[in-house]
Each structure stands twice: as C-alpha cells, then as structure tokens.
Amino acid sequence: MGLNEGVLDAWPSSVDPEPDRPPNAEMPRCFMIMEIVGQRIRSALPAWMTLLVAIFPARVQAQTVNLSVNQGEVLQDVAAELLTEIYKRAGLTAKIEPSPPARNNIRVLNNQIDGEVARVGSYFEKNPSLLKVEPAFYYLETTAFAKNSRKIVINSAIDLHKYRVGITRGVAHAQAITEGVPNLVMVNSVEQLFEMLNLDRIDVAVDAYVNGAKALNNLRLNSIKPVAKLARRDLYNALIPSKSSLVPRISKVIKTMAVSGELSAMIKNCERKHLDELSSYQ
C-alpha cells in the first residue's frame, strides 16, 4: 500500500474538512480583508513608481544623447567638455563623436545623430529644422591671422575682400564672416589652413581665435599672428526636432550655471586645461 493510498484510507469518509461551508459560500471575512489589501497595494504601485521618478529623475529618466563635435578644433573640445557636464546635471548622458564639420551637418540633417555640440547662431538660420538650445553656453571670437612679414592691416570684415582668404570647410562662423569674399579658399582642417598661410598660398586665415592659437603652437609657426578679432559669436547646442523634450531641461541647467557664475568659472578652467600655451598669442 502506498503512502497516498494509506492517507486516503485513513481519512474518514463521513467527515467534511469544512462541514459548515456550502460549495458556493462567500469567502471568510479574514480572506476578504487580505484580498482587499492586496488589491489596494497593486493599485497603488503605479503611484509609488511615479513618486520615485519625481524624487530620482537623474537615475530613472537618464538617457543617452548622441552628439557630434567638429573634429580637430580645440574650441570644440572645450565646448564638448562643458556640454558633457551640463548634460550630466540635466540627468542626461552626452555621447560625443568627432567628425569633420561638413559631415556633421549632413549627419544631423539626416537624423543620423541627435545633435551637435556647438554651433553659432547663423548656422540655425541656414538649417531651420534644427533646434537651438538657448541660452548660449560658450562663445568664440572669429579672428583673422596673417604673417608678420606681410604687414597686413584689417579693421573689419570688409577688408578681407582685398586678400586671398582661407577658411575650414563647414565652419559656419568663418563662412559667415567671409561671405562675398572673391578669393576664398576652403580647406579640410585647421592645420592645413595655417600650413597654406605659412606657404603664402593664402594671405589671411580666418578661424576661431583659440583654434588658431592651438594650431600655431602645434605647428611651431612663430611667424604668424592674429591681426584682427572680427566678431564674437555665441555657441549653442543643436538638437534634432525629435529631441525637443530635452530642451527645457538643458536650458534650465545652463541658466542656473550662468547666473551663479559657475559656467564662467568652468569655461576658464576648461580653456586653461586645453590651451595652456594660449598666453603666448595674447
């Protein structure tokens, strides 16, 4: 005889385990209370989850934003470091990939990336589909460079029309300041730009001041100096339309840091880190 068979045989056939409860009887009161409590706990769960999101937004809502940065430009390196910290404070992760400026424009317009680290205001005028995250978080100074031996004098952008001028392809601020210049040469990198200037293939090179200072130091070109600062332009983070929900979060952080003075201090620290040789070109 098996165990189950013995148990069944031992159970009195005339005894009902719950003799006073009909088959369709209601659930005992203690079980009803437990069921109600369980239902309320389950219904309250979404509210608790919402509360957690509100309390810990950086942990719960953090997302990665894929950005491009203009390759080979120390100005953009500084901007990328600044924006990475701004995104972090907004509960976002900036994943930044360097690429040539002209290529960055193609990629962002085709939604292959979520945005670009830093672009001047005129860039958005030519690319109206992109979102300009305001306020600006950095700036640049469009500067004309020339060889000392040429004794070139430039007082304004109009004076550029008299010379052979070189710029880096895809750099919006340089394109804007040289619009209408009859002898304009476009190259693919900052280093190539200043090498051409050194070889007298152009008379003037136009780029951001910090880019020029860094390139001249790297190339050991002491015969070239800045001859005019032509414009100061603010830099804005650019995003594609599908990322519009991120704009208020990023803007809020930039405004807070600007008002407190923390952004200005961070800019100085980042520039000092990337441009320790800058003082020799002041």
Largest sheet geometry: 8 strands, mixed
Shape field: elongated
**Unreliable runs, pLDDT <50, ≥5 residues?**
1-25, 48-54
Q: Just give the CATH class of the largest domain.
A: Alpha Beta
Query: In total, how many beta strands?
Result: 8
CATH architecture of the largest domain: 3-Layer(aba) Sandwich
How would you spell out the order of helices and strands? Answer: HHHEHEHEHEEHEHEHEHH
Number of domains: 2
Share of helix, binned: 40-55%
What's the number of helices? 11
CATH fold type of the largest domain = D-Maltodextrin-Binding Protein, domain 2
- Overall pLDDT: 84
Question: Compute the gyration radius: what is it?
Answer: 33 Å
Based on helices, strands and strand pairing, what is the structural class? alpha/beta
Main sheet: strand order: 2-1-3-8-4-7-5-6
Q: Could you tell me the strand content as a percent range? A: 15-25%
Name of the CATH homologous superfamily of the largest domain: Periplasmic binding protein-like II
Calculate the terminal CA-CA distance, rounded to whole Å: 103 Å
Task: Summarize the helices and strands and which ones pair or pack.
Elements: H1 3-10, H2 29-55, H3 57-60, E1 63-70, H4 74-89, E2 92-99, H5 101-109, E3 115-120, H6 121-126, E4 131-147, E5 165-168, H7 172-177, E6 184-187, H8 190-198, E7 204-208, H9 209-219, E8 224-239, H10 247-260, H11 262-274
Parallel strand pairs: 1-2, 1-3, 5-6, 5-7
Antiparallel strand pairs: 3-8, 4-7, 4-8
Helix pairs in contact: 4-11, 8-9
Structural summary, described in words:
- This protein has helices spanning 3-10, 29-55, 57-60, 74-89, 101-109, 121-126, 172-177, 190-198, 209-219, 247-260, 262-274, and strands at 63-70, 92-99, 115-120, 131-147, 165-168, 184-187, 204-208, 224-239.
- The protein has 282 residues and is of the alpha/beta class.
- It has an eight-stranded mixed β-sheet.
- Strand 5, helix 7 (172-177) and strand 6 form a beta-alpha-beta unit.
- Helix 4 (74-89) packs antiparallel against helix 11 and helix 8 crosses helix 9 (209-219).
- The longest helix is centred in the N-terminal third of the chain and has 27 residues, at 29-55.
- Mean pLDDT is 84; it is low at 1-25 and 48-54.
